[in-house]
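stuck on this:

***
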Amino acid sequence: MYRRHGHGLNKTAFALFIKPGRLHGWNLEFDKNLKAYEKPCNQRKKTKVTADMVRTIVEAANAWKKKKSRIVLKEFTRHLIKEHDIVLSKKTVSNILVANDLRKPKTRKKRPKFYQSLCQIVPNGLLSMDGSVFTVFLGDEVYKFNVESAVDVFSNLCTAFSVSNTETSGEVLKVLEEHRKKWGSPLGMLSDHGSANLSDDVSAWLKKYDVEPVPAGPGNPEGNGTIEGAFGWLKRTIGEIRIDMSSKKTIAKSVLETIIGAYIKMQSRLPSGAQLSRISSMGTPINQKTRESEKERLRHYLKSKEKSNDSPKLKILCDMVRHLKMKPDLKVVKRAEKSIINYDIEAIYESEARFVKAVSKKAQRLNLAYFFGILKRIQQERDDHVYKEYCRKKYHHARMLENERLEQERLENEKPPDIKLVIDMLIKSITIKHRSVSDFAMRRVVEWTNELKKTVKYTGPLRKKFMDIIAELKDVSLDQKLEIQRQIEILLPV
């Protein structure tokens, strides 16, 4: 593995299409002989979060913020395990911190992004320009070159390139001029904010041939991805260029191996094809039942893709476009319809109001990209608020204490009444003169006695306990004591 060699690890991660952080994590699990380290089995047990536990976490978090000002969740979770013996997942700890206003709520809900296409309708409409560093190894010597290249966004065709020591405005002009001689002037040039692309010479050339400069970045959410993607696949395909300089024959062999290696990698990406030829596959007989089944599947697929024009979210969008007399491109409208159905209707209403207000102040804001920027921010705020309320409802310390108190009261109320409580209520039913109160007390005596009967198998021992307590009563007369005994005999017959 690439221990302590960050550059090599990054290159390996790029080739394997995985994140460098993940590869670094795997790397730490092996020693220099590629033998896996032994790990203790610490399977996390499910732990019930209590109010005392939340109080401890809140106090620990406040003390942590005084020392380090910022809570790193992974590090803080380890601190809780080590110092306070609280074993919880990072997600649970995060929820507790959010609930008690010690961490800012942040939700991540994937929604289709809204973006406006850049001149991809016609070929030679938008030219993507960028440079990238390539390394060539000649024996032990290392040479680095900058490759400046131009790619047509519509056709994805590399139209011109130039190899130089560094990225300069001269190389950019060289590539632009080569493209113009082959294909004519493009409508626009998409590039990053590098000094070579923004130089006076390049600006003069663009003005001379009426080419619009299009900056990559916030103005174009797709960025300069066309040319960057082309460079990425090129580097993956050719790999490192190493030439053995020991003799003329080895030089020729190295060049041949490089070319054949690139060809094999490109050829391996082509479809292998079926065993039958395409015309033979087309003529393969299919029975009627299979055809009907496939037709039904196709109908089901098309039905699932249908959009209802009666959708209130689409209606808001259409009404807003019509009311503000916007004239967006058809592709922009379709993308907007696909994006807006994934947002809450309350967020759309609020965004519409803010958008109209913003446009009234500045007319240049009248476009769907600005509207969706507002909508995305409002929806994020709503999602964060819902998440915070969820955390507060579940883990807020004061609320947890109140919930525990209510739960304790509920358990106390659900406990079956004891014998003394039943006798006290029976005394009230006999001694109180008011009939409605006496009847109510007697109903409770019957109800509680029936609950006590459910807790025992035989009523004999229960009846004996009642009689023993009644015999020791001192604050009632003999007649009242006899009446109480008579009522118990009725409720608990032998």
